[in-house]
From TrEMBL:
Protein name as catalogued: Histidine--tRNA ligase
Lineage: Bacteria, Pseudomonadati, Pseudomonadota, Alphaproteobacteria, Acetobacterales
Pfam families: HGTP_anticodon, tRNA-synt_His
Organism annotation: Endosaccharibacter trunci
Keyword Nucleus: no
Assembly, per entry: Homodimer.
Cellular localisation: Cytoplasm
C-alpha cells in the first residue's frame, strides 16, 4: 500500500527540528514573563467573523488564505490564520475590557492557504505578544523591546534588523490615501491586475504587493510623512524617543505598511537577509480599532507575532538531544532489580532507560550508541547486597556504588561535567 503523505504545506516536527521549535517557544515565553505577560490560549478554530471583520476583506489573508468551512451544524468556522483577532475576541468575551491593561502572550499553530516554500507553510507556528489598553508610545516601545530581547535571547541579534514606520492616525491615513489614489491612477497601466482592483477597494494594500512591477511603482509613491496630523507626528516623535530609552536601535522604513488592515501609528518588522524572500521574522504594530471590531469598547492596543519556523531556521545550532542513564541488567534474572533501580533514578529526576532485550554485551553497546553518559550495571547478587556497578561511559572508569546514594552520585557527576 502507498503510504499517505502529510497534507501539502504541513510538516511533522520530530527530533532536532522539534527541539529547535521548543527552544524558540520556551525562550519567548520566558522573556515575555520578564515583561509581565501572562499566557493566553485561545481555540484553534473560531467563528469566521472573528477574522473577516477585523483583518480587512481585501487583505491577502481574508481574500485568499483562510481555511474556512461550514461545520456540520452549518456554522462558518475558520482555522485561525493569526492570533491577534482571537486575543481581542477573548478579551471581550471574557469581560476583561474593564481590567486594563492586559498583557497576553500566546504560542501555537496558525493556518493559511499559501503556496508552500522554504519558510512559508500552510500550517505554521507563531509566538506573539499583545498589550491591550495602553495608548502611550511608551507601550509601543516596550512591546518592540520585548521582541528585540527575545531575538537577543535566541542569539539572533546580529542576524536581524528592526525596520519601523508610522501609519499615522485615521485622519493622516485618509489624506495619504487620497494622494496614493491620485498617484496610482496616473500609473495604473503599469500595475498588476490585482493591484488595479486594490486601487478601487484598498489602495494602501498596493504598497504591500509582492509583484515586482507593482514594487517598482510603489518606490515612487507618496510617503505618509507629509500627511501626518499634528497628534500623529507627536506620537511618532515620542515613539522614537522611547525606543532610545529602551536601547532599541531601528531604521525608518517608510515602505512598511503590514498586510492586515487593523494597524495605526506604529508598524514594524524585524527582518533578516538570511532567509531569502521569507525575511520577516517578527512583525506587528498598533491596532487601536480591533477590540471595538469584536464588539468591545474602543480600546488601544499594540502587539506583534513571530514565525517560529523562520526563527528555528536561524538558530545556529539545535539544542542537544537529552541523553539518559542506561540501566543494564547483567542477565535476565536481574531485570526486575534493574527496573527498580531505574524507577529510583527517575524518582530522583534523572532520565533513565533500559533496553527490552539482549545480553550484557548487546545492551552495553546500545548504551554507548545512544550517547548515555553512564551505565548502571545491575547484577543479581550485588543488588541483593544493595550495590550496583556505575560505569562512566566517557572515560571507561567503573566502581561499585550503593543504590541508596546512586542518584545523588550521578547528579553530582553530571553537574560537575
Ligand atoms: P509575509 O509577508 O511573509 O507573508 P505576513 O505579513 O503575512 O508575512 P504576519 O501576518 O505579520 O505575516 O505574521 C507574522 C509572522 O509570522 C511573519 O513575519 C512570519 O515570520 C510568520 N509567517 C506568516 N505567514 C507564514 C507562513 N505561511 N509560514 C511560516 N511563517 C509565516
Ligand atoms: Mg502573508
Amino acid at each position: 500500500m502507498q503510504p499517505i503523505q502529510p497534507a501539502r504545506g504541513t510538516r511533522d516536527l520530530l527530533g532536532e527540528e522539534q527541539r529547535r521549535h521548543a527552544h524558540v517557544i520556551e525562550t519567548a515565553r520566558r522573556v515575555a514573563g520578564l515583561y509581565g505577560y501572562d499566557e493566553w490560549v485561545t481555540p484553534i478554530f473560531e467563528d469566521t467573523r472573528v477574522f473577516s471583520r477585523s483583518l480587512g476583506e481585501t487583505s491577502d489573508v481574508v481574500s485568499k488564505e483562510m481555511y474556512s468551512f461550514p461545520d456540520r451544524g452549518g456554522d462558518s468556522i475558520t482555522l485561525r490564520p493569526e492570533g491577534t483577532a482571537a486575543i481581542c475576541r477573548a478579551l471581550v468575551t471574557n469581560g476583561l475590557t474593564q481590567s486594563l491593561p492586559q498583557k497576553a502572550f500566546y504560542a501555537g499553530p496558525m493556518f493559511r492557504y499559501e503556496r508552500p516554500q522554504k519558510g512559508r507553510y500552510r500550517q505554521f507556528h507563531q509566538v506573539g505578544a499583545e498589550l491591550i489598553g495602553a495608548a502611550e508610545p511608551l507601550a509601543d516601545a516596550e512591546t518592540i523591546a520585548l521582541g528585540r530581547d527575545i531575538l537577543r535571547a535566541l542569539g539572533l541579534e546580529n542576524d536581524v534588523a528592526l525596520e519601523l514606520n508610522t501609519l499615522g492616525d485615521a485622519q493622516s491615513r485618509a489624506d495619504w490615501r487620497a494622494a496614493l489614489v491620485g498617484y496610482f491612477h496616473e500609473v495604473a497601466d503599469g500595475l498588476s491586475e490585482e493591484s488595479r482592483k486594490r486601487l478601487e477597494r484598498n489602495p494602501l494594500r498596493i504598497l504591500d504587493s509582492k509583484s515586482p512591477a507593482d514594487q517598482a511603482l510603489v518606490a515612487d509613491a507618496p510617503l505618509i510623512e507629509p500627511f501626518l496630523s499634528e497628534p500623529a507626528r507627536v506620537f511618532w516623535d515620542q515613539l522614537r524617543a522611547a525606543l532610545d530609552g529602551f536601547g532599541v536601535s531601528f531604521r525608518h522604513n517608510p515602505r512598511i505598511v503590514r498586510g492586515l488592515d487593523y494597524y495605526s501609528h506604529t508598524a514594524f518588522e524585524f527582518v533578516t537577509e538570511k532567509l531569502g524572500a521569507q525575511g520577516t521574522v517578527l512583525a506587528g504594530g498598533r491596532y487601536d480599532g480591533l477590540v471595538a471590531d469584536m464588539g468591545g469598547p474602543q480600546t488601544p492596543a499594540i502587539g506583534w507575532a513571530a514565525g517560529v519556523e523562520r526563527l528555528s531556521m536561524l538558530l545556529d545550532h539545535a539544542p542537544a538531544a537529552p541523553s539518559g542513564i542506561a540501566v543494564v541488567p547483567a542477565g535476565d534474572a536481574a531485570e526486575a532489580m534493574a527496573a527498580q533501580v531505574m524507577q529510583t533514578l527517575r524518582a530522583a529526576g534523572l532520565r533513565a532507560e533500559m533496553a527490552y532485550r539482549g545480553n550484557l554485551k548487546k545492551r552495553m553497546e546500545r548504551a554507548n550508541r545512544i550517547g548515555a553518559p553512564f551505565a548502571v550495571i545491575v547484577g543479581e547478587s550485588e543488588a541483593v547486597r544493595g550495590v550496583v556497578q556505575l560505569k562512566n561511559l566517557a572515560d571507561g572508569t567503573q566502581d561499585e556504588v550503593p543504590i541508596v546514594g546512586l542518584a545523588a552520585r550521578i547528579a553530582g557527576a553530571c553537574s560537575a561535567r
